[in-house]
Automatic annotation (TrEMBL):
Protein species of origin: Clastoptera arizonana
Superkingdom per UniProt: Eukaryota
The protein, known as: Reverse transcriptase domain-containing protein
Region (Disordered): 21-50
Entry-linked PANTHER family: REVERSE TRANSCRIPTASES
Length: 226
């Protein structure tokens, strides 16, 4: 059953996560009143260890290194949780509208799996090679709630055989592992008054496995319409 398959996937994910080693607890930095960043203890001084760290980070993730150099530590959102929840519930609430018939152009993109005229390549078993190619292109971003980054996936399943098999099962049964559906959202300060939620940008940290899965499907759709 799919439930048994999901249990097996959960066990595998725990084993993969163990490859990261013990988790280090990092407390977020809270700003003082007024939302002013605290100066770094090394402001105005050359720190060779910090310079080396930035250089290594730049080789791994250039965008993150540039953000650290130009922006310093990000502010911690001190807005009350209930207010944040209310704000984003209202912002992302679905407005009243009527759904009409799906346009033929859209239906053509998703042919019936049982139809002989459908493009079977979209629903074919996922090949380890195509999963590996997509994994190599994924940016080095933070993982979702499962804590598994792309780098560990490459280490745990070098040939992407396990990943391809799991994704094929999900594709065939048109279901997704529950752990792949969850995500964390953090608020990134953009500018201005930190007490104004308009000045914060929500950033969603989703499961890397789920993003890899949807990435492979996107690749297939792209090749189909080239």
């Amino acid at each position: 059953t799919f439930a048994e398959f999901e249990d097996a996937v959960s066990v595998w994910m725990e084993e993969v996560l163990a490859l990261k080693g013990p988790k280090r607890s990092v407390e977020p930095r809270r700003p003082p009143r007024g939302g002013v960043r605290r100066p770094s203890p090394h402001d105005g001084q050359y720190d060779p260890q910090e310079a080396s760290r930035i250089q290594k980070l730049y080789r791994i993730n250039r965008k993150k290194a540039v953000r650290e150099v130009l922006g310093g530590d990000s502010l911690f959102c001190a807005v009350e949780g209930s207010r944040v929840e209310s704000y984003y519930r209202k912002l992302f609430s679905v407005g009243g509208y009527t759904l009409g018939e799906t346009p033929e152009e859209v239906l053509a993109l998703f042919p019936d799996a049982e139809s002989q005229s459908g493009d079977s390549r979209l629903l074919a078993a996922m090949d380890p090679e195509e999963v590996s190619l997509r994994l190599a292109k994924m940016p080095n971003t933070a993982p979702g709630p499962d804590g598994i980054p792309y780098s560990i996936l490459k280490k745990a399943d070098p040939g992407c055989h396990i990943l391809a098999a799991m994704m094929t099962r999900c594709l065939r049964e048109k279901k997704l592992i529950d752990a792949w559906k969850t995500s964390n959202t953090v608020l990134i300060h953009k500018r201005g008054d930190p007490s104004d939620l308009d000045n914060w940008r929500p950033l969603t940290l989703a499961s890397c496995i789920a993003k890899l899965y949807t990435g492979v499907i996107a690749d297939r759709l792209g090749r189909r319409h080239l």
